[in-house]
Specification:
Mean pLDDT: 88
Low-confidence stretches: 1-12, 278-284
Number of helices: 8
Structural class: alpha/beta
Helix content: 25-40%
Shape: globular
Length: 284
């Protein structure tokens, strides 16, 4: 059941980064090509929670993330952060994509310091901020390198650092580890949880990987195929801090099977062919 929307004064008294979505519709395209991507979505995320949006490809989960980032307008309904409507992009709502968007001609340090630079932060201050964030993601020794000199996992760490240096209320992540190999992906998931345990910003993490969602999240919002609707809001019961060993626990397996059932398309099954009464052939 969706919690009632807070007024701005009530929201400001709570932890920052609260999200309230109420009867949200998002339509994309124009004319005959227009279509409904998200239909009548309502949910609330308290400030500081880590929530995964889980769903099949094309269900509208990235569209919903784009609306939270301020890149995609809402067609109907209300989408509020800390009681205020979203009106375009803002550094307080940073987004990390699957493939890095780092400036190839800038060093790691310069990439991370770019946001503070655009906000007018003095050079020495922003360099210190960037160095501190790089230390927190384990890249202090790579500040002078360029993106092409980094592995995929290291590039994504720089992306996360580039968002965190702005002290965002929301960290929005669109399948950020989807292009990584299995071992690097697991390490990045553990690193994300470690960082989040310190900064406690609100994280909305889009994925189609059930294991990833259950390992990371406080809650999992499961979306239907397009037009996307939230078909279940699952509270993940595992205590924190979490280790990768939880994937072998019986409750993890039960929740995974439940998510699989929710995501499995309900396609009518054709009847099995009838065996011929003579021999082993099939009847015509």
């Amino acid at each position: 059941m969706t919690a009632p929307l807070q007024t701005p004064s009530a929201a400001s008294a709570a932890a920052p980064g609260r999200i309230d979505a109420s009867h949200l519709f998002i339509r994309l395209g124009e004319g005959p090509q227009a279509f409904e991507a998200v239909r009548d979505v309502s949910f609330t995320v308290p400030g500081g929670q880590l929530v995964c949006i889980l769903g099949p490809s094309g269900c509208g989960k990235s569209t919903l993330l784009g609306a939270l980032a301020g890149h995609i307008p809402v067609s109907e309904g209300a989408l509020l952060v800390d009681g205020a409507p979203i009106c375009g992009p803002h550094p307080e709502r940073g987004i990390v994509f699957q493939h890095h968007t780092l400036f190839p001609w800038k060093s790691v340090l310069e990439n991370v310091a770019f946001g503070p630079k655009m906000r007018g932060v003095p050079k020495e201050t922003r360099r210190k901020q960037a160095q501190d964030i790089l230390h927190s993601v384990g890249l202090a020794d790579f500040a002078g390198l360029y993106p092409r000199q980094l592995s995929g996992g290291m590039q994504q760490r720089v992306e996360i650092a580039r968002v965190l240096v702005n002290n965002p209320r929301l960290l929005l992540m669109d399948e950020p580890f989807g292009a990584l190999d299995a071992l690097t992906r697991m390490m990045m998931q553990e690193l994300l949880l470690e960082i989040w345990s310190r900064v406690r910003t609100t994280i909305i993490f889009v994925t189609h990987d059930i294991d990833e969602a259950l390992f990371l999240a406080d809650r999992v919002l499961v979306m239907s195929p397009r037009p996307g609707q939230i078909i279940e809001d699952i509270t993940v019961p595992f205590p924190r801090p979490r280790q990768s060993e939880i994937v072998s626990e019986p409750e993890f397996g039960r929740l995974k099977r439940h998510c699989l059932e929710l995501l499995r398309p309900s396609v009518p099954r054709e009847p099995l062919p009838r065996l011929s009464p003579i021999g082993n052939g099939l009847s015509a």
